Amino acid sequence: MSAHFEVYEDKANQWRFRLKAGNGETVASGEGYPTKAVAIKGVEAVKRAAAEADIKIKEAA
Question: Which residues are in coiled coils (predicted)?
Answer without folding.
Answer: none
